[in-house]
Design brief:
6-stranded parallel sheet, 8-stranded mixed sheet, alpha/beta, 2 domains, Rossmann fold, globular, 387 residues
Length: 387
């Protein structure tokens, strides 16, 4: 089975194998590599990942862990603007036609979803979340209205979908009334999160937070939580910063006198994150909007329970009182109480930690996710589903 996966993907992951104009630390899009490599392990699967990047000096292809990665050099921003991305669309479709896949799978409801939809091959779209232009308070600029039209076109002309959370299903059924088939398949996490050392790391009385320094991640609320629990410290790992918002966060840390308890670590690689998770008691999330954050799946795999505000698709991931706690958004006191409950009750913590590992193994292991996805591929190719 020949599969083409269309998605955003980072050149940074393969910076030593590619000829780049600039070495840019982009978002890693880990679910792309986890899925592709999981699919490549299944017999008779030939997997191609195609992405368009501006950091390339030329279009390049590499093969890593059985996956063919095709990095397409994009035009200048000005030329993309003038041509509405038609040059990139032509390049991608030309590549797809040469590969002659059994199925084209887009992992996005955007440019890549559009390319999959207009290809002459059977296609599938994964909906990872509600597009920003559909958010309640999103500004409806001309650009936003165009993006909405593209999403509607993709939905109208696509029959098969994967949704990563039941939370996303509400968006699908609202915007595509009939004639679709979907499967609920979670995002896979890296196999490394399931590799357990025989040398147990001693847990420290500390929390961990992983995300981006943006308003929608609710970092100001996180600061309030830390201020309300005087006996703990927290490591904050982040790959992207909204500079203006970051200044506000630094100011709050100073006001609450928390500089000795909040460690702003910035970017960390996968191995470093795993080590920091193993040292931590809990992952805490105070976001205002989330669909299915992979940091929860990764924490579960390391046996680290999660306390989070109950927003978006969070309650589909955290089994309340089983793998952690969900708390009404904005309730800082209740959030702090739940953190303290897990920190102070060793028996509860041990049981919760075991359940976290079990859930991760059953739901997020790349082999299991790849098997579910490959089975769906086969049904689509053989047309064994009825709409």
């Amino acid at each position: 089975m020949r599969i083409v996966i269309l998605s955003h993907y980072s050149t940074f992951q393969f910076k030593d194998l590619l000829v780049l104009k600039q070495n840019q630390n982009e978002h890693p899009y880990p679910w792309v590599r986890n899925l592709a490599e999981g699919l490549a392990l299944i017999n008779d699967n030939d997997v191609f990942v195609i992405t368009v990047r501006s950091t390339l000096q030329k279009t390049q292809s590499i093969k890593v862990n059985g996956v063919n990665y095709l990095f397409v050099k994009s035009s200048s921003w000005f030329l993309r603007f003038l041509t509405l991305g038609l040059i990139e669309i032509f390049k991608l479709n030309n590549m797809i036609n040469k590969i002659k896949p059994d199925l084209v799978h887009s992992l996005d409801l955007d440019f890549y979803g559009f390319c999959a939809t207009i290809s002459k091959f059977k296609h599938l779209i994964t909906i990872h979340g509600i597009p920003k232009v559909f958010w309640r308070f999103s500004k409806q600029t001309i650009g936003a209205r165009i993006k909405k039209k593209i999403v509607y076109f993709i939905l109208e002309n696509t029959e098969y979908f994967i949704i990563i959370s039941p939370y996303v299903y509400n968006f699908l059924k609202t915007n595509k009334k009939t004639n679709y088939i979907y499967e609920f398949i979670e995002n896979p996490i890296s196999m490394n999160y399931f590799s357990y050392s025989m040398n147990l790391v001693e847990k420290k009385r500390q929390l961990i937070w992983i995300g981006t320094i943006q308003e929608r991640k609710g970092v100001t609320e996180l600061i309030q939580v830390i201020a309300s629990i005087p006996t703990i410290t927290i490591n904050m790992i982040f790959s992207y910063v909204d500079n203006e918002y970051f200044l506000l966060i630094r100011k709050l840390i100073e006001e609450y006198k928390l500089s000795n308890r909040i460690n702003l670590l910035g970017y960390k690689n996968e191995v470093e994150i795993i080590n920091l998770l193993d040292e931590s008691y809990l992952l805490v999330l105070t976001s205002k909007e989330e669909t299915a954050p992979m940091v929860i799946s990764e924490s579960f795999a390391r046996g680290v329970p999660v306390v989070s505000f109950d927003i978006g698709g969070i309650n589909y991931m955290i089994d309340n009182c089983e793998t952690g706690f969900t708390v009404e958004y904005g309730n800082i006191l209740e959030f702090s109480n739940r953190v303290n409950e897990l920190l102070s009750d060793e028996e509860l913590y041990t049981i919760t930690s075991i359940k976290c590992k079990e859930k991760a193994k059953n739901s997020y292991h790349p082999k299991k996710v790849a098997e579910k996805t490959s089975l769906f591929y086969n049904h689509i190719i053989k047309e064994e589903y009825e709409t």
